[in-house]
């Protein structure tokens, strides 16, 4: 187990290095550099040159790569070109916002999916089942921005119940204690719902199919034959087995926790990873783009690793 | 007239899903004949944000420009038109044509016909999605067949490449590429296709591994068939159903991703219409004209639902096949 984990960790480090290097090379080879972003013709050529020198853009690519890799390995991701602050500081500031938003969204998605599927399984092919099937298919197919804008249009503009954007209102920003938390919760409702609604369909669709299959498996029939109630057979026997692949699915969505739902963050002006990366991409902020990519890649690797460990922990068959 | 046997044996979901996709594709292809010019800006001031079902008088001037009026009548040797609440007199010499025009789905923020833009957006969105799928399938099937058939080092290397690609935070990569290359449609297709082939490769590799040792494949090998022939005649046809199911779901995903990128302003660039960038434009007037946001989003959803139903149906078909075998 220890040797396996170490091996996986080594592969993970290798992957992060590969992805980071590939991104670095791509950024380096891409036409135009950050200095061309200063497209104002009134900027004198000399200033442009000085700017290039300051950020080290005048050095050849391999030299830049070596310097960047050395610094990155020691945890220094450089200075953001648009924020003029340390990349680690910028990312450290927005990461909690994203984690808060996406973990709540993911919880709603998983919890909602399990509840919907269980309701459907009470009477398969009954009225409730059909209705929920239709709902989950639609929820799965709706683009995230469509759901987000729909929620804003209805609950923020028409009914005025929830705020349409940002983490805090002006009053909430200056408040402390409970009023501040209440303000935050109000601002969380719509974006979390947007994430939950778009994800819940996929979970419910998967779980319903899987539970329908498990119901006719021998171990469930055996449980029923021993006099176990249908409800208990479903909850205590079929459900745990159907939930196993969800662990892998959740592990794979860990990167989503970090990279955030880009679209939701942009629609709701939520200052998180996705929003920052979006602006970094628009502004060609190379250090920030690279830093964010590294953080997201680490999340992918760690997510897959955790999923495998969790899988081994709950399923004795893979432990061998 | 009854449906032919093969069609009747298809599960309803497959029929409904394929019918929806076909209908959308047909509307996209026939768009130019069904609706007006999607890029024509008639009269930004008087024809903007007309609600669905509105109709207005379009007066084309002799210099080719046009004004949109709520009413027009002949008066003497000219036209008296009512536009934006005021009446104007236009001399007959300056007017080339006067006609009433119906806007079935209204107009957008600069007065372009929404129906025409939706249809032209369908061509772009469905086209980009489908072509990206073709790229993903071509790369994925080749990699999967090669890995599964050759085994050993080739398999090891190809599957590690798949792992590496899967570890890339795709959304960030797409963002970055889109921001750097201001993508033309061809770039967009390539970027989307190359970010989506890994699942296909894994699926095909698994299928090939299980088919490789079947008697008919062994027989073909014993008779001296080359690997390309075996792949084309035996492996790919037998892996077709799971592949088609995967392709249907993948098409839906690709269309959703393209829509998201275009919505963020990083995909299809205006003035070309795509469902994603139409939503982005509609967002600016969400409070006044919600349908501008709603209609393209619904079309995206309908396409993805069609694809998902087709995938479900294909799975049912495969199960029915297994039972009768």
Quick overview of this protein structure:
The complex is a heterodimer of chains A (320) and B (325). Chain A has 15 helices and no strands.
Can you offer a commentary on this structure?
The complex is a heterodimer of chains A (320) and B (325). Chain A has a single domain, classed as MetI-like (MetI-like fold). Chain A has 15 helices and no strands. Helices cover 62% and strands 12% of the residues of chain B. Chain B has a 3-stranded antiparallel sheet with strand order 2-1-6, with no helix packed on it. In chain B, strands 3-4-5 form a 3-stranded antiparallel sheet, with no helix packed on it. In chain B, helix 3 crosses helix 6 and helix 3 crosses helix 10. Chains A and B meet through helix 1, helix 6, helix 7, helix 13 and helix 14 of A and helix 4, helix 5, helix 10, helix 11 and helix 12 of B.
């Amino acid at each position: 187990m220890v040797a396996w984990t170490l091996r996986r960790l080594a592969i993970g480090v290798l992957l992060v290095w590969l992805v980071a290097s590939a991104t670095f090379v791509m950024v380096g080879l891409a036409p135009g550099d950050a200095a061309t972003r200063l497209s104002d013709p009134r900027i004198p050529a000399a200033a442009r040159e000085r700017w290039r020198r300051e950020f080290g853009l005048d050095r050849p690519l391999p030299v830049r790569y070596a310097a960047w890799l050395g610094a990155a390995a020691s945890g220094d991701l450089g200075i953001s070109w648009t924020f003029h602050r340390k990349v680690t500081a910028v990312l450290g500031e927005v990461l909690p916002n994203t984690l808060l938003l996406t973990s709540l969204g993911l919880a709603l998605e998983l919890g909602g999916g399990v509840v919907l599927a269980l309701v459907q399984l009470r009477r398969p092919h009954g009225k409730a089942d059909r209705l929920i099937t239709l709902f989950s298919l639609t929820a799965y197919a709706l683009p995230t921005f469509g759901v987000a804008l729909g929620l804003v249009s209805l609950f923020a503009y028409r009914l005025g119940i929830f705020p349409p954007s940002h983490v805090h209102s002006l009053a909430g920003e200056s408040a402390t204690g409970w009023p501040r938390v209440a303000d935050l919760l109000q601002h969380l409702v719509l974006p979390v719902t947007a994430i939950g609604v778009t994800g819940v369909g996929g979970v419910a669709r998967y779980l319903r199919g899987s539970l329908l299959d498990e119901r006719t498996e021998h171990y469930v029939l055996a449980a029923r034959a021993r006099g176990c109630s249908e409800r208990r057979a479903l909850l205590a026997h079929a459900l745990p087995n159907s939930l196993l692949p969800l662990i892998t699915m959740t592990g794979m969505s860990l990167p989503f926790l970090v990279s955030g739902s880009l679209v939701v963050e942009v629609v709701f002006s939520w200052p998180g990873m996705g929003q920052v990366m979006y602006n970094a991409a628009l502004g060609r902020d190379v250090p920030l783009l690279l830093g964010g990519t590294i953080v997201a890649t680490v999340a992918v690797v760690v997510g897959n690793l955790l999923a495998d460990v969790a899988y081994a922990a709950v399923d004795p068959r893979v432990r061998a | 007239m009854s449906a032919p046997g093969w069609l009747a044996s298809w599960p309803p979901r497959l029929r409904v899903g394929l019918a929806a996709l076909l209908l959308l594709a047909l509307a996209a292809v026939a768009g130019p004949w069904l609706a007006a010019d999607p890029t024509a800006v008639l009269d930004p001031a008087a024809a903007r944000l007309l609600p669905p079902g509105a109709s207005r008088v379009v007066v084309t001037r002799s210099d080719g420009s046009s004004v949109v009026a709520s009413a027009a009548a002949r008066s003497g040797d000219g036209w008296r038109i009512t536009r934006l609440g005021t009446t104007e007199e236009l001399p007959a010499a300056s007017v080339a044509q006067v006609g009433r025009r119906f806007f079935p789905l209204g107009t957008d923020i600069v007065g372009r016909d929404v129906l025409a833009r939706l249809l032209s957006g369908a061509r772009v969105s469905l086209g980009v999605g489908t072509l990206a799928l073709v790229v993903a399938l071509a790369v994925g099937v080749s990699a999967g067949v090669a890995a599964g058939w050759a085994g050993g080092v080739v398999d090891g290397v190809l599957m590690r490449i798949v792992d590496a690609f899967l570890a890339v935070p795709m959304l960030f990569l797409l963002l970055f590429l889109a921001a750097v290359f201001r993508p033309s449609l061809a770039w967009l297709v390539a970027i989307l296709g190359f970010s989506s082939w890994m699942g296909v490769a894994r699926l095909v590799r698994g299928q090939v591994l299980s088919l490789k040792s079947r008697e008919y494949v062994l027989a073909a090998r014993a008779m001296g068939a080359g690997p390309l022939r075996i792949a084309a005649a035996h492996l790919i046809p037998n892996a077709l159903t799971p592949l088609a199911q995967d392709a249907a779901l993948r098409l839906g995903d690709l269309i959703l991703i393209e829509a998201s990128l275009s919505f963020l302003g990083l995909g299809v660039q205006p003035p070309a219409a795509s469902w994603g960038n139409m939503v982005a434009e509609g967002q600016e007037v969400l409070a006044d004209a919600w349908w501008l946001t709603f209609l393209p989003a619904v079309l995206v959803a309908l396409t993805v639902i069609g694809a998902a139903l087709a995938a479900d149906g294909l799975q049912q078909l495969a199960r029915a096949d297994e039972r009768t075998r």
